[in-house]
Amino acid sequence: MRPVRRIPTEVHSLGLDAFGEPVLRLRTPPAWQIDPGQAVLADLGDSCGLLSPLFPCEVAPGLLSLPIEADSTFRPGMPLSLAAPIGTGFRPPPASRRWLLASSEAVPRRLLPLLKQGIERGVEIVFAGEPPAHGLPLSIEVVSRLDQGLAWSDYLALDTSRQALPSLLASLAGMGIASISLAAEILVASDILCGWGGCGACAVHGGRGWYLACVDGPVRPLGSLLEGTGRRGA
User: Fold this and answer.
1) Domain 98-225: which CATH number of 2.30.29, 3.90.1570, 1.10.3470, 3.40.50
2) What is the pTM of this model?
3) Distances (CA, A) of 113 to 10, 45, 100, 145
4) In percent, how much of the chain has pLDDT > 90?
5) Residues 226, 185 contacting (CB under 8 angstroms)
């Protein structure tokens, strides 16, 4: 996990991501890095004065895209306070060549940076679930169910919210994933992240107890959330 620090940024432009959803594009220092799945804290001008936790949907050298409301009042050149990166991100094994991705969200925006990373690495990628109307590259195969790709893959990346986590874990248990030797990670998104674990509002309960998403997540080994399992992938 990289140390959280203030990053000097300014608004580059307003636009749309690969799924046609509105994004705020920010200029960042060229050498600054953030892993797919890590979050940022941004000052969106809310009256409460708190920084809003956001998951980047596009990352490039010197440029970062964050999801925003369509009626945003940000304009090019405006400075924006950003603290990042928050927590841990996805770390696919360097030797992995067959990635299986799935999300509990209708539009898997939090997986976009990982998708881009996989395409740049030249790995094969399969997306499991109901695909969005557009946005997934043509090179990505789509299967209707997660269990259809488990035997094929050597890396599994899941994306979910805290609210959807219990049903997802129950579904995975029904697939018998605890018996499968597979490198697997899961991003559990939280609406509240303080960045240093002080407030406890981002606590997530898995099969092995509680953890804080902003310091021990948001991305975790899947096995740490499955009760009574000790395998690498489960």
Assistant:
1) 3.40.50
2) 0.89
3) 21, 26, 15, 22
4) 53
5) no
